[in-house]
Amino acid sequence: MAKPKVFILEDDPSIAAAVRSSLEDEFELVASEWNPAAVLQIHEQMPLVTLLALESSSNSVAEGYVRVLQELRQTGHGGKVIAYTESTERSLAVRAIQHGAYDVLSKPLDMSLLRQIIRRAARVADLERDGLGVTEGAGHDEFSGMLGTSPSIHRIFDAIRKVSTNDAPILITGDSGTGKELTARAIHGRGLRRQGPFIPINCGAIPESLLESELFGYERGAFTGAVGQKKGKVEFAQGGTLFLDEVGELPNALQVKLLRFLQDHTFERVGGHQAIEMNVRIIAATNVNLKEAIEKGTFREDLYYRLGVVHINLPPLRERGEDIALMAMAFLRQAAAHYNKSLEGFTREALEAMRAYPWTGNVSELSNRIGRAVVRAEGAHVTPMDLDIAHSTVPGDDGSISFKVNQQRIETDLIMKAFTLSQGNLSRAAQELGISRSTLYRRLRQYGMDRTLDARRVLGLSPRASMTEH
Questions:
Q1: Is the dihedral of CA 40, 43, 46, 51 positive or negative?
Q2: pLDDT, tens digit, for every residue of 225-235?
Q3: 8 A C-beta contact, residue 15 and residue 53
Q4: Does pLDDT of 211 surpass 60?
Q5: Which of 7, 117, 152, 244 is exposed most, by the fewest CB atoms within 10 A?
Q6: CATH topology (fold) of 5-129
Q7: What gap in Å lies between CA 368 and CA 58, rounded to an integer?
Q8: pTM
Q9: Domain 164-315 indexed as CATH 1.10.8.60
Q10: How far lies 407's CA from each of 214, 252, 268, 356, 392, in Å?
Q11: What is the 3-state secondary structure (H, E, C) of 246-308?
């Protein structure tokens, strides 16, 4: 596998040499001093990450570096820029963030930390560069919009390919929001019946008194108000696929009628006496544990085995690793286009927060949060506060059992949760944590969090997402 390319734009040969010595084992490095053609050089090299030295804002060379940031952003450069400086002027760091820097570090550089940040930045840039990682090799077109490169989702893709070649009934299980209907549509779209209709019906959303007639139709005079004959979903699915979502909610009487249809492909409309034969494939889905429902007597065991000739169980989002970032980028593009907003992606902290979040609502919750975050976002990148997710600014868990390292992780996570609850208010955050405001501010400075939070205020972002004193 090729090493990620990193471009080093640094005037000091000793610093460039030190960075090269520390990183060359993992990254492909290209170094250059600042010059008017720097932007062209970066575009020609197409690095995933560019390291950019910033000096005092009074220095004309520093202004040149800032212009590099501006031009890279304006020309649509797909890589990430990590700036570093020994200047204590906060305005310089804020300007770098404002012009699209992925992160700003202080000198002297901590090479271990720099390596971790470059690694993450390269991974994000790689996802964005490959069409945000959405189409190539991620199943997007082939599987009706389903996305993923993780081993667990590739097992689902393999199962879809196999079951698409036959007409066996399929039972899809999984938590709410894991994509059961998308999976059913992907099976239909690849299958023998793809030229026929795909008819979905949510068995849990229709009152029990109406469900039978919605599913099987009715004859004229079958009940009060039945002034004419009506076809049901089964008939509309002729030659195609009938998708029974939330099949675990079917009442017992309808379970019997569905079982008969699965056995001999015939049914009668409500109020009718003539058996109607249909050529329909059944795909059912549920988030209910049907084996437990069988034990409770609320679901028929014979129907369970008829429906589940093939059983596909969808993994929860928290078990799909990098698929979270992949789908988040896709949802961000969709939402940004819908709301006519120009966004470049997510901050490093936002990506870390999404990876750590449990996602109990799975893909549906992810899509919903991204949509809301796009509406809220006021900068070029979506932040954890836009997502309304607390995060830790400490590098990811590397398995360390160091008390100091883990104490910092815990404290930063609690601080960010407090800022989320207090809508960025420093005094209320301190009150939530049970510490004084001065103690909280010392912790922010100790962990380098004051720059991240305060930069938002300097940039004029929403008071809800800035560090205030009130």
A1: positive
A2: 777 888 889 99
A3: yes
A4: yes
A5: 152
A6: Rossmann fold (3.40.50)
A7: 45
A8: 0.58
A9: no
A10: 58, 55, 67, 17, 12
A11: CHHHCCHHHHHHHHHHHHHCEECCECCCCCEECCCEEEEEECCCHHHHHHHCCCCHHHHHHHC
